[in-house]
Amino acid sequence: MKTWNQISKKLEKKLSQDEFNTWIRPLQGEFKENSLEISAPNDFVLNYVSNNLKSHIYEVVASKDTKIIFKDKNNSTFVDKYVEKPASRRKNNPGLVESFIFDTFVEGKSNHLALAASKQVAQNPTGDYNPLFIYGGVGLGKTHLMHAVGNEILNQDPSKRVIYVHSEKFVADMVKALQLNAINEFKNFYRTADALLIDDIQFFAGKEQSQEEFFHTFNALLDRNNQMVLTCDKYPKEIDGLEERLKSRLGWGLPVVIDPPELETRAAVLLAKASSMGCHLPNECAIYIAQRIRSNIRELEGALKRVVANAKFTNQEIDIPLVKDALKDLFVISAKMVSIDNIQKTVAEYYNIKLSDLLSKRRSRSITRPRQLAMSLTKRLTNHSLPEIGEAFNGRDHTTVIHACNKIKELRVENSSLEEDYKNLIRSLTN
Amino acid sequence: MSNPRQLALQIQINERASLKNFFVSKNNNKTIQILKNILLNSNNGVQIFIDDLGSNGKSYLLQAICNDFSESNNSSIYIPMEEAINLDPSILEGVSELNLICIDDVDLINNRREWEIALFNLINECYEKECFLLLSGSINKLEAIPDLVSRIKKMETLRLEAINDDELLEATQAISKNLNIEISDKNMNYLINNSKRDIKTIFRTLSQLERESLERKKSIGLNLIKEVIRSS
User: Residue A8's closest CA among A29, A31, A33, A22?
Assistant: First the structure.
């Protein structure tokens, strides 16, 4: 009997490298009696292989008696997915990110209470704070704190089963379980966790059946005195589309808020992240970035990554000019495409002439110069072809556009006043 | 479920695309070098957003990276949202099993809640599984759920700038060479002066010229260029 590995190697020789890597490599195959069961990561891959590559697989299998069965890997049961996996810390505690620990969480006024409560829960998971309900806006560190609680519980007792799940995943798993007639496995899986961490529960809003299941899971875990940590973007009572009885339950434990970080915390986060990336970020640079990016920690991290990548590329120390250069487009929101209409209107207003005159056949210098300038700006600020630009200026030929651009190029060197006008218009159109 | 035959057609990838033949303009030299550095030096997967306001070559770039990844025996997938948006978002389920996932034009999912959630889940899975995720689009045009937007803004963001006019001829020559087609300088200038002045348009026009020339078994002359520009 052949193995899937042998089949796969033969297919690699038979198909193009792209085809093999994209479609065959993600598959898993298993021979069972007279059949070869092939599972794919999703329907998309499954359909492609089944419709386009099945004949190649049959050729390689080279046995008419072997039946090929395609199945979606996601159709595996919850037992397949989690319970019978190797007992490494990560596999036994799905979803938990090991790097999200209390030591890497930057404390500030905005998150002080949430951090203290999380530490308390991690030290004493079956205590009074059940559920621990952490709420606040996006990208403020709720998920980090939640994982930190899970990781600390495991540090205290590695035999505990801690499950982290995003609420969307909880819903998707439940739907699959219903489809596969495996709802009891689903219930058992979640209701027997020592600690259950569910992220962003606002996504339960409007999903009645999921709320029902979550409600019972919640009760089962509370009955067993097992810890729950939940995060949300709002205070429990303010979540629209959530059943009242659930809102009430969510408020039983300890709701703690994380507010947007103040300047000092934002700067401290940047310094800590830079240090974890092995980079030296001077204090004044951290303050400079933190003063300009106020929304959330994720955006700060994104900005820092850009700065670090630029510093590595140019082999420079990080300083203010480098930060300004790396983040110039982030600080200036503009950068929008400018339309020909807008250019024509702006130029006409700037020179105090009528738009109809700018587009007319008139050849007086007071009109032709702004017209040439408008054409030149259109070439610079848009990606229209020269014939398109000519057409937009009352059906002129593209050679007229070329002439206008060349003329303005010359005049910008010779005539400082025109150069000033040109710069003013660019500024006005791009800001 | 969507028609699988259509799916197969819709994710065709330009097999010749490679970083080796990607035309790098002066404006984008630093960006591409940084991108290469990140891809070469990240062992644990990374999430990158290619920010492209215009038509500056992001689709070709994503396909090139996919192909180069595959050459090194890594699994990858290229998903153009322009095509995928008409399919069921479940096509993203499980793709985080692959080594590299490239999704082009993500801003097309704006106000498509089911797609926003699917992409949000994919980003979380890719983070957990440490695979490479490359998204492209215009970051300023992105209007999705805040949880998704903040995750995208956390990514390494690299911006592709428009090509300068003085490099258009060089770019056209380089792309022609890669496509193995011959166009006289005079005809090339005509093409540049009469097409939209961006990399995507030039590439598309030259690719079509290549196809037409092969089909008709004729060299590329001014008449054919005019015909292709008119039809595009």
Answer: A29
